[in-house]
Amino acid sequence: MAFSGIGLLSIPYALSQGGWLSLAIFVTIAVICYYTGLLLQRCIDASPLVSTYPDIGALAFGQRGRLAVALFMYLELFLVAVDFLILEGDNLEKLFPAASGVQVGALHVGGRQAFALAAALVVLPTTWFSSLSVLAYVAAAGALASVVLVAAVLWVAVFDGVGFHERGRLVHWAGMPSAMSLYSFCFSGHAVFPMIYTGMKDRKKFPMMLFICFTLSTLSYALMGIIGYLMYGDALESQVTLNLPSGKVSSKVAIYTTLVNPLTKYALVVAPIAEAVEDELGLRVAAAKGRPLLLRVAVRTALVAATATVALAVPFFGDVVSLTGALLSCSATMLLPCLCYLRVRAKMIVRPSEKMYRLETAVCTAIIVVGATIVGLGTYSSVKQIVRKL
């Protein structure tokens, strides 16, 4: 949800990996993530001191819980920033296939990697701003961009001659771990749920707001996945835009829409990581006292350089997104909410009825088992693919 641009691009590929029956798993993951979002709400309601996801970890498991939740959050955001740069490189190469790359000293950087590096240089200045309010408004247009992206791909199928001629497979067990990982990534937004909830004027509307968001996201993802799979079947690339016919106006609209999203969202994604590092170094306090901001700029530049280095070294979009979804998104959306809630519930003064207590315990246990399965199988599968391609 928080990274819907990437999710929309990869959902057709995910469906091709798991087959039509994997849509049932997709819907199941959506329902689970909606429920665990409500569990986070209950954890926040248990203490007036809780306002962020790491605060929930601290409430449940103390300082170790805070560190564990923060680690998963920041690693996920880091890999999403890497995904953004890989995405930029792939789609720019699609637009300009004749580009041969650049020569950096004795090192030749290929076209795709050169475009990713150029994207890093473009987003670098946006990370230096201490206030991201302007970018936040621009990034809010992501919902509109998602609609444009789906419409452009649909236009390619209906009016540009591609059509819906592929039947696809009913089920593909070998690709199911990858499919589950990518599906989990689509609904990774739990890190921001506490901040949204605590910032609402009427908190009673949070469950309905969350339900509407998940419903719309699930429908848009499913529509894009079905359209893409019927268009290209098992020949789908990790991003559906890479399959679109070159030279068509609708294809260019889809690709340009894809390119703009990461450029506007990159600074917002890396900001929490940068702020955490700056807090540890005492740089934000120094900035508040009017001291030079050079070190803050250096921290953020180093962070961009780190994401660019990983993007150049591991330029495999589908596998990196799959790894992010399996190891980090699934942990943050399934495992941690359930574990934290079960621990926090034991400390509540007002506890559920005995029947509800047992039902919640059974549901949370089942979700933990499902989450652990996706984490294990998905992480192994994605790491294996990355190592094989290196």
List the keywords.
390 residues, mainly alpha, Amino acid/polyamine transporter I, two-stranded antiparallel ribbon, AA_transpt_TM, transmembrane, transmembrane helix, transport
Overall geometry comes to globular
Q: What oligomeric state do these chains adopt?
A: single chain
CATH superfamily: Amino acid/polyamine transporter I
Tally of alpha and pi helices:
14
**Quantity of strands, as a count:** 2
Spatially, the strands of the biggest sheet line up as 1-2
Counting helices, strands and paired strands, the structural category is mainly alpha
Distance between the ends: 30 Å
CATH C-level class is: Mainly Alpha
Q: Under CATH, the topology is which?
A: Amino acid/polyamine transporter I
Unreliable runs = none
What do the pLDDT scores average to? 88
Membrane topology: Multi-pass membrane protein
Protein name: Amino acid transporter transmembrane domain-containing protein
GO molecular function: L-amino acid transmembrane transporter activity
Subcellular location: Membrane
